[in-house]
Amino acid sequence: MKTVELIAPCHFGLEAVLKREILDLGYEISQVEDGKVTFLGDMEAVAYGNIFLRTAERILLKVGAVHAETFDELFERTKELPWEEYIPRDGKFWVAKATSIKSKLFSPSDIQSIMKKAIVERLKKVYGIQWFEESGDSYPIRVTFMKDEAVIGIDTSGVSLHKRGYRQMTAKAPITETLAAALIMLTPWKRDRILVDPFCGSGTFPIEAAMIAADMAPGMNREFLAEGWKNLIPKKCWYDAMDEANERVNTDIQVDIQGYDIDGEVIKAARTNAKLAGVDHLIHFQRRPVSELNHPKKYGFIITNPPYGERIEEKENLPALYREIGESFRRLDAWSEYVITSYEDAEKYIGRKADKNRKIYNGMIKTYFYQFLGPKPPRPRRQEAALD
Q1: Rounded CA gap, 309 and 318, in Å?
Q2: Residue 150: strand, helix, or coil
Q3: Mean pLDDT score, 132-137
Q4: Of 36-50, 165-179, 338-352, the least confident
Q5: DSSP assignment of 25-42, as one string?
Q6: Structural domains of the chain, with CATH
Q7: How far from each other are the two terminal CA atoms of the chain, in whole angstroms?
Q8: Which of 1, 33, 212, 305 is found 20 to 30 A from 184 (Cα to Cα)?
Q9: Residue 360 — φ and ψ, nearest 5°?
């Protein structure tokens, strides 16, 4: 199979986490930019990327990059691309999304319309037909303009990769699965360490942590658009990737992962979601306020997404809430705490300046990932060989 370029969009600020994931899968990185990582692989990499990457939002098959400052230029440059290598005669194709930043062409609807016409003109000539039934599989196209340079790709994922298939019930202001996984992977947490989320909501942090601990691929329980692309990706690629995913799963492990929330109905939803993910036996969910957070053991982790106070009526409660977060954290012995929030006075009321602080966009909301680092546990002593 020939080598292709694949584009993996991600949350702004988390490109390094995704890059590490891609390298761990054994693929070569060709470019890292704000909000996306491009890598090289064969068509099998489409299957592996969709099934195994925890922090990518989707996988795009790159068709090409063009420079265009006018719509005539966009039409001609788009028409020059080898669309017949990707879209079959009966393929259903459309420009599903267009974004433009600092470019002369800025109207998404006009970009979409011009590009569709250009692709039709190209394929009419190649296939020798005047009308496309578009009765076959779907090939949605996405284009991103940046300073008059357009990168064009075909979406292989379909539904965004943050939809793992387990979250049927959500709390208000949920954190996405991809963002939760990335934030966990930014910490030194491993499955032999305690993890508690005192604002667990629908359970995303504990569930993603349990899936990481069990080496459970995030795309195991869902389908992908490109599974139907028989002209490009042999079914065997998907079967091989899924077989490897199944072989790697190990749910027979001992972990201490806990999720608390003050809302009992939300806790019920979290338990349901964990069961759908196949990790309910690895997580202890409990209705409990943050003020009652405690644990007898040392060197644990808090990773959480507390209320931001986006509504005006909630803002007045934030100082007391974040003060409680700080007080509960100080009662724990040698723990580390990781908090994602847009609340700018978080450090003030937690009562400690974060050791590290990372700006991350949660959707359109600018948030900060405050990292309060505890001491590392001592290394276990090696038993010295008995002397004769």
Answers
A1: 7
A2: strand
A3: 94
A4: 165-179
A5: HT-EEEEEETTEEEEEE-
A6: 4-155 (3.30.2130.30), 177-217+231-372 (3.40.50.150)
A7: 59
A8: 33
A9: -140, 140
What's the predicted TM-score (pTM) here? 0.94
CB 50 within 8 A of CB 31: no
CA dist., res. 358 & res. 345, Å (int): 15
Mean predicted lDDT score pLDDT of the chain: 94
- How far apart are alpha carbons 301 and 329 in whole angstroms? 10
The backbone region for 215, taken as left when phi is positive above 0, alpha when psi lies in -120 to 50, beta otherwise, is left
CB atoms within 10 A of CB 238: 20
Residue 5 Cα distances to 64, 151, 235, 278, 311, angstroms: 9, 11, 20, 33, 43
28 backbone dihedrals φ, ψ, rounded to 5°: -90, 135
Token couple for 142: 């996405």
Residue position matching structure tokens 């006075």: 345
| DSSP letter assigned to residue 114 | H
* CA nearest to 189, candidates 379, 333, 374: 374
How far is the C-alpha of 298 from the C-alpha of 293, rounded, in Å? 14
Query: 172 pLDDT exceeds 70?
Result: no
Amino acid letter, 296: P
Look at residue 313 in the predicted model and tell me its pLDDT.
58
pLDDT, position 364: 81
Q: How confident is the model at residue 312 (pLDDT cuts 50, 70, 90)?
A: low
- Tell me the one-letter amino acid at 337: E
Cβ burial of 213 (10 Å; 0-12, 13-18, 19+) is: buried
Burial (CB count <10 Å: 0-12, 13-18, 19+), residue 218: buried
Query: Which residue has tokens 């405050």?
Result: 370
3-class DSSP state of 298:
coil
Q: State whether residue 357 is helix, strand or coil.
A: strand
